[in-house]
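Lab manual, section 2.4: Encoding a predicted structure.

Procedure: take the sequence of the chain (124 residues), apply the prediction step described in section 2.3, and record the output as structure tokens. A sample record is shown.
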Amino acid sequence: MSSGGAADSDIGGLFAAIDAQDGTAFVGYLTDDAVFRFGSAEPVQGRAAAQVAVESFFGTIAGLSHAIHKTLRDGDTLVCEGVVTYTRHDGSSIAIPFADVFEYRDGLIAEYKIYIDIAPLYAE
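Recorded output:
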């Protein structure tokens, strides 16, 4: 595996769209038939379904911010790890580690898998 590459730099824009809670900008990084899976949720397919899924999630939080610590590339696969800090509607926040796996096709994400345990986000 190697570090660096054009898709690696594109994830900055992707995470900026996510942190802005902009579902329309988010799906602009996906292929029309992309498969998107968030944690242990069932995968969804297609931009429209991914937008509904991510916007539904955004409704459960007040905000979020990603810090990317490492990216690794192998061909059309990009893996990144970091910490996402969620802000709850009550103003409290929690930082949770995550890893994402992106499979690219023609410069867009064809498969986006998020590995995270978000249970602490909703714990009392």
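Check your result against the sample. Confidence is low (pLDDT under 50) at residues 1-6.
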